[in-house]
Amino acid sequence: MCRHGFLNHVKHTGDSLELFQNQQGYTGQDLYVPAQVVVDKGFITANETAAVEFAYHIFKTLKIDTDEEIEKWFDNFKNGAVRTL
Fold this sequence. Notes:
Elements: H1 17-21, E1 37-40, E2 43-46, H2 51-62, H3 67-79
Antiparallel strand pairs: 1-2
């Protein structure tokens, strides 16, 4: 997305700003946000450690289920299916 200019006009994140700055044509450094996931203008970006959060925002955007079911899914995958006190 970076190489093709998609991130030059939306807030976004990734593993590091430096990785983006090394790509030809990237001019979106002022819109880079150091976060796990950023959602802006229909774009969802995430760093490499945010797989569950990334999927969560995709599910929410596509409305693949009710908000309640998506929240349950997120809680299960983020916090584990088996929890001890």
